Structures are given as structure tokens and as C-alpha cells.
Amino acid sequence: MSGGPERQFGDDDDDIVAVPEYGVPVMEFRICGKAEDAKTGQPVKGIAMTYNNPVDPYERQDTTWTSENGEFIVQRNTYPPSDKMIVKFTDVDGSENGEYSVEKVEVPLVWQEESQDGWKVGIFAADDVKVMLDPVESSESE
What we know:
Layout: E1 26-37, E2 47-52, E3 63-65, E4 71-78, E5 84-91, E6 103-108, E7 110-113, E8 120-133
Parallel strand pairs: 1-8
Antiparallel strand pairs: 1-4, 2-3, 2-5, 5-6, 7-8
């Protein structure tokens, strides 16, 4: 037994990760689309895209980045099933390809295919998502 205080549940909830066990229904989802400059319509590369299942407060976010053509795709399983994802686009490369404001988008997921697996509720997708990113105006003072 250590001499320090005992850790109480709730002291640091960030350490808690909900782990689905056998028999928990999951859904497969896919989100794909393109990020473009809101003023020019040109594709924006190097933007970090994270997503969050709004009904799962413990889900850890994965990150993907937009390609040279501004395209992105993420596909994985999640629990519990949800009919939408909250997707966040963040410019992380500074002024390399212009600077853009953070954009948060609620993306509805549409049922695409029924699963034959008893614990998988199906495949849900949002294809051709178009995100318009607002450029940050530089404020150069002389």
C-alpha cells in the first residue's frame, strides 16, 4: 500500500475508455468528401479532419488529412450506433497553403447496407461531403 491518497472514480475521467465487449452492437461508417477554399473554390490540402460520435463521450478521435486534391475519407466501426458524426476541420500547417478558420460540421449518416452479422447494425455513409473553409485574413500592420 502506498502512502499517497487513493484514487477515486471521477478524479480524472479522461483516463476512462469505454470498451465494447462481446455482444455490443456496432455500426460501420464512412465519411468522404472534399475541402475547398470558400472564396476561390480551390481544393485545400493538409487540413486535419477529426470526427466525434456525439452519443459516445469516451470515443477517442482519429485524425486524417486532406489530400493534394482536398479529398478526405474515413471509414471505421463505432459504438454506440449514431445517425450523425461531428466533423472538425483544422488548419495545422500554418501559412504553407493559406490559413483557414476551424470549421465544425454535423454530418448526417445515411443507411447504405444491412449487415448479415448479428452484432453489426449495418453500414452508414456520408459521401460527397463538401466543406467550404474560410480563409483567415492576414492583418499586417506597417
